[in-house]
Amino acid sequence: MAGGGFGDSNGDGKDYPGKLTMFVFFTCVVAATGGLIFGYDIGISGGVTAMDTFLSRFFPTVYHQEKADHSTNQYCKFDSQLLTTFTSSLYLAALIASFFASTVTRVLGRKWSMLGGGITFLVGAALNGFAKDLAMLIAGRILLGIGVGFANQSVPVYLSEMAPAKYRGTLNIGFQLMITIGILAANLINYGTSKLKGSIGWRVSLGLAAVPAAIIALGSLFLPDTPNSLIERGHDEEARTMLKRIRGTDYIHAEFEDIKAASEESKTVKHPWRNIIQRRYRPQLVMSVFIPFFQQLTGINVIMFYAPVLFKTIGFGNDASLISAVITGLVNLFSTLVSIVTVDRLGRRKLFLQGGVQMIVCQIVVGTLIGVKFGTSGQGSLSGTYASFVVAFICIYVAGFAWSWGPLGWLVPSEIFPLEIRSAGQSINVSVNMLFTFIIAQAFLALLCRLKFGLFYFFGGWVLVMTTFIALFLPETKGVPIEEMVLVWRGHWFWSRFFDEEDGGDASSLAGVEMAKPSV
């Protein structure tokens, strides 16, 4: 439990009997494919918006600005609110959908939320692939957003509930791994389809989003419910049987009773959205807001959404910009594997802090390199060697994100909430994430035009703030059973002040806690 001045914790909790079974491993792999739809969209958007045939059809003003005026300020070539609306509309839809997904996840179970997300994303992909006008294109993006909202709400919770405590980090990061695979696949597809003549290129890129959608939709049909969800919905015997199966042992009494106690407490909570603002849930509420908020202010989506546009803007040709995006996608993928291997050994805090320092340095270096060549006028060009340095430091930055804020931004919020407010808490996490993804996506091209190379310093400053926040306020959560996480907060130097005496103890002792709203 946390006890040090900066919130260090050894992460020790109850060590329930059981092991990592192949059944759990495969169910978590299937569930994690929900990340493919999110990743594919992040990767595909930037590549498509860099295709001339796409721009000329849907955003002719941007296309003519780029082609007609070769002296245009490099920072402002693609500054179009209509163009950014294409990218960011998905995330606004995901934000709204996450609130509805919370109820579906709690009442029907995690797997049905995944199924709904997959089917909706599939329909959106079809609309985008066959889009005839901008309205049809945006409508498809909104459906894609609803699918992302449902999947992102349910998948991390599902993974955290299915995984044994000692392997929870590794299995949960499978979601982020699938996001990176989706991004890489999209970058490779964009590179291939950019060679196709006419409108077929962008149609194939957008339409192929149906593939990851079909994978999660079909996969979710074969997924079992988590024991936590089964107990929450009153299926105790099914939950007991499932817990034995996923832990690979008959000695599941202690874990079952802890989940059961948490469930009994959750049933006394009629309004989780009202309860989540109570004083004793303040630590989890703060983390569910600030972690996704900070994750987007790392600037990662500047790179991933607009990598081809960004590289094209700073002087790379069409092919070079897409190849550079593929390179960053590969770095993202392999660096996420580093996180999978280390997260349950080193813990969450060490990865957060190391990755933060690495990203700060890279943002400063990239901003300086671009500033030296383009200054504030936006006039200039990059030599091959100089451009390689820019790409190299962007890749080092992406690596730092991929083994820290990328996976941990989803893992930590999904594992810290008690059952009675878990769906509401994850919904807040997803909605805040989508809100600031929307804001950053909508504002990026305008910010690049106005802040110029200073945009990288802007994000670097935020990374400094968030790294300090983690150092001070996030206790270590590795190895702690999900229903015992309250002990971590009670032992923290800062968060312990938000708990009364009756809020303490293990999960079983929490069952009898009075659910009246305490004083704030």
From TrEMBL:
Keyword vocabulary terms for this entry: Membrane, Sugar transport, Symport, Transmembrane, Transmembrane helix, Transport
Coiled coil (UniProt feature): none
Residue ranges constituting the Major facilitator superfamily (MFS) profile domain according to the UniProt record: 27-478
Membrane topology recorded in Swiss-Prot or TrEMBL: Multi-pass membrane protein
Tagged with keyword Plastid: no
A GO molecular function held by the record: monosaccharide transmembrane transporter activity
Gene3D superfamilies the UniProt entry points to: MFS general substrate transporter like domains (1.20.1250.20)
Any Pfam family matching the protein: Sugar_tr
PROSITE patterns in the record: MFS, SUGAR_TRANSPORT_1, SUGAR_TRANSPORT_2
Subcellular localization, as worded in the UniProt entry: Membrane
Listed name of the protein: Sugar carrier protein C
Organism from which the protein derives: Dendrobium catenatum
Gene name linked to the record: STC
